[in-house]
Specification:
Pfam families: NPHP3_N
Structural class: alpha/beta
CATH topology of the largest domain: Rossmann fold
Largest sheet: 7 strands, mixed
Strand content: 5-15%
Protein name: Nephrocystin 3-like N-terminal domain-containing protein
Number of strands: 11
CATH architecture of the largest domain: 3-Layer(aba) Sandwich
Number of helices: 21
CATH superfamily of the largest domain: Alpha/Beta hydrolase fold, catalytic domain
Number of domains: 2
Radius of gyration: 26 Å
Keywords: Endoplasmic reticulum, Membrane, Mitochondrion, Repeat
Main location: endoplasmic reticulum
Organism: Bionectria ochroleuca
CATH class of the largest domain: Alpha Beta
Length: about 575
């Protein structure tokens, strides 16, 4: 559930509904940053114009007659009454695709992307006044890094983060604030404050100037000099802390190294690879935080670069963004490791809640977590940048525009599995082009993802796209995407998948090259009798070529018919 983000202090960006989180992610912004804006990318999209004509969803002929192919293929497989299809004939739809307008859509990835990979997590974002100057008259915050770190420590203690493992994601100056905060926590005589560092499982640094940055300080000094001449106040404490090899930064780094060795949490470093071009000459022609400054200098940090400048390295355009794949992939790995540890050492209820926090070595210990490295390599093999391209392009629905489907009795029966033994488990939504079917599917999937945290089901989705590259239209990418989502969510399905691959003496690489093998393995995975129910959403199936549409219709009818007969989930 998303929450309001405050300018200062801790805000809850996301938390699972009716479920206890397994881990807390804490985002801390940097110099001149903001707890929402620093992690938000504004993306230009097209959405139906407000002046669009009102149409009706209808099962009439679709583009190139391909929807009729689906209908005829399904009809040959059984009586038309066995395929439940809600008819939204009287419901308002969206206008034709060309009747659109440009809009800027905000993607706040801690709430919009990360919960998809880490559903049983609580995601917090911390805000503090790190501005070097105000652009209007008025006082600036004179607090030093020490004060900001102290405020963060007390805020974390109030929010009860010591009850579960903590993962910090810190951009720029935020990394210094986090290191100072952990130092204060380790020296505290109070249990609730000391528990913060004891609960820390990992820290992810994004462009943190561990050794100061002359370029960074010069930027601030230039701005401060210009604005100070106008009679506006500035904050020299923040600028002084960013000077090259200052005493404060050296002391903070030495203290952090001691804490890291003592508490043995995991550290991951991401560095910027681009300079701040297009701003001007001088220091802006270089990286804001040079490599020697953004490195701690310890092989355990496993430093990587992001293809972005200092400002943009914390903002991503979607699940397929290469930079998000690195950062989100790291957080997903940490999450899965913590979920595994939690399943082996369940939290004990009582007045003193305990949890098991893995050491940094346990994240890579193949004896302790035997299948995790293999699972991660499998997910990497299945993943493709095109998997979620269409999903990201679909606009969010206007309020209440999709409620007709969710209130429809056929959909409610299908979704809740409140149907008779002889009824189909395949639900087909029909409509003319541009009437909003994809928007409805995206919203249906979003609600199913939300519900899976409190219900006994897991869900996955794929959105075909005939525009752009061929890859999003292929059957192969459909099955790779669905497998990637399901195996990521279920260790049980992953182990069954591995057993099947070993049983047939094949490899993942070989299977991915042959569509029939891929479909065969997918069918094996989804036909297993596991405790969770599997709900799949597939949008725009008619974007495939004619033969593929027919094959897909038969394939999904066969799977759902078998599931009904064998009473599988």
């Amino acid at each position: 559930m998303k929450q309001c983000i405050l300018d200062t202090g801790i805000s809850v960006a996301y938390e699972p509904e009716n479920a206890e989180p397994i881990v807390d992610f804490v985002f801390v912004h940097g110099l001149h940053g903001h707890p929402y804006k620093s992690w938000t990318k504004f993306i230009e999209k097209r959405k139906p114009s407000s002046q669009a004509a009102v149409g009706k969803a209808s099962p009439n002929r679709d583009k190139d007659g391909r929807e009729s192919l689906i209908r005829r293929a399904l009809a040959r497989l059984g009586k038309s009454s066995s395929t439940t299809s809600p008819e939204p004939a009287s419901q308002p739809g969206l206008s034709e695709a060309d009747n659109t307008e440009k809009v800027m859509e905000a993607l706040f990835w801690p709430a919009d992307l990360l919960p998809l990979e880490c559903p049983k997590s609580r995601i917090l974002t911390y805000g503090y006044d790190s501005k070097i100057t105000k652009y209007t008259s008025g006082a600036t915050n004179k607090s030093s890094l020490l004060s900001h770190s102290k405020d963060l420590l007390f805020s974390l203690a109030r929010h009860g983060v010591h009850k579960r493992p903590l993962v910090f994601i810190a951009h720029s100056l935020g990394g210094i604030v986090v290191k100072e905060m952990l130092g204060r926590s380790s020296l505290s005589a109070e249990d609730d404050l000391r528990n913060i560092v004891e609960s820390t499982a990992a820290i992810v640094f994004l462009g943190t100037p561990h050794r100061g940055s002359p370029e960074f300080a010069a930027i601030g000094e230039s701005l401060r000099s210009i604005v100070s001449s106008l009679g506006m106040e500035t904050t020299p404490a923040n600028l002084d802390a960013l000077g090259l090899k200052t005493t404060d930064l050296e002391r903070a780094q030495e203290a952090f190294s001691t804490i890291w060795n003592k508490y043995d949490f995991r550290v991951k470093t991401f560095q910027e690879s681009l300079s701040m071009t297009g701003i001007g000459v001088g220091p802006f022609g270089n990286k804001v935080v040079p490599d020697h400054s953004s490195l701690i200098g310890d092989v355990r940090e496993r430093a990587e670069t992001l293809q972005a400048n200092h400002k943009d390295m914390s903002r991503y355009s979607g699940l397929e963004d290469p930079n998000y794949r690195k950062v989100g992939g790291e957080l997903g790995f940490l999450y899965r490791s913590l979920v595994y540890v939690n399943s082996q050492s369940p939290i004990r209820a009582g007045p003193s809640i305990e949890h098991k926090k893995p050491s940094s070595r346990s994240f890579d210990d193949t004896n302790h977590l035997p299948h995790l490295p293999l699972k991660n390599s499998t997910l990497d093999s299945l993943w493709s940048p095109a998997m979620h391209s269409r999903y990201q392009d679909i606009a969010h629905p206007a309020d209440t525009t999709c409620s007709w489907l969710f209130n429809h009795q056929l959909y409610q029966d299908w979704y809740s599995e409140n149907h008779g033994h002889n009824q189909s488990r395949l639900l087909w939504l029909k409509g003319k082009p541009g009437t909003g079917k994809s928007v409805i599917m995206k919203e249906a999937f979003r609600l199913a993802v939300r519900d899976q945290r409190t219900s006994n089901h897991m869900t996955a989705a794929f959105f075909f796209d005939s525009r752009g590259t061929e890859l999003p239209c292929s059957e192969s990418i459909l099955f790779r995407s669905l497998l990637h989502q399901l195996l990521m969510k279920s260790d049980k399905l992953f182990l069954l998948w591995r057993e099947k691959i070993q049983e047939e003496s094949t490899t993942i690489e070989s299977m991915l090259c042959k569509l029939q093998e891929l479909k065969h393995f997918f069918q094996h995975v989804v036909s297993q009798d596991i405790s969770e129910r599997i709900i799949l959403y597939i949008d725009a199936l008619d974007e495939c070529d004619s033969k593929s549409v027919r094959d897909q219709a038969y394939f999904w009818r066969e799977i759902t018919t078998k599931a009904r007969k064998e009473e599988l989930n």
